[in-house]
Amino acid sequence: MCANLSGIVVVGNLTNSCKSLKTPSSNFHKSCQSQLFKRDNRQGLSRSMASVRKIIHTDTAPAAIGPYSQAVVVDRTIYISGQLGLDTASGQLVAGGVQAQAKQALINMGEILKAAGSGYENVVKTTVLLADMNDFNNVNEVYKQFFSSNYPARAAYQVAALPRGGLVEIEAVAVVGPITDAS
What we know:
This protein is α+β, with helices and mostly antiparallel strands. Helices cover about 25% and strands about 20% of the residues. It has 3 helices and 6 strands; from the N terminus they run H-E-E-E-H-E-H-E-E. The chain has a 6-stranded mixed sheet with strand order 1-2-3-6-4-5, covered by helices on one side.
């Protein structure tokens, strides 16, 4: 018999004794585990197949400035950490204001995309963080040089401050491999 564990819900047609888990430190009840595996296989899933995670690092983009990766690939999805307008060689922000920093941030992103086996055309979502929302149009002028069609979804926010006194930071989600556009 399985005891109720608050906060965990099992969805599907399971026997009443398997609609909850045992205590937090214990494993699934054996028959619950079997039923979940059978249910997932009917839906085309397999509990025994884990997602594959790959950490991306390239020396052609600035190293992470904290305890995080430049990017992580899980299956075919690339999660690219926020990129500042840092010069790869010096590790310093490039001179020239928000447009120069946006351009360098996107160049850095391109190097990470390349290291992950992808490119700008496979970016599906970006988030732009601005130190000053008044720079929105200036960043757009640079942004459209890197994304010229089939634009990724995007959010833009003004933030209180960015690391190293940056004026713009851009993160992205992309896909490895071919993407077919729907008609």
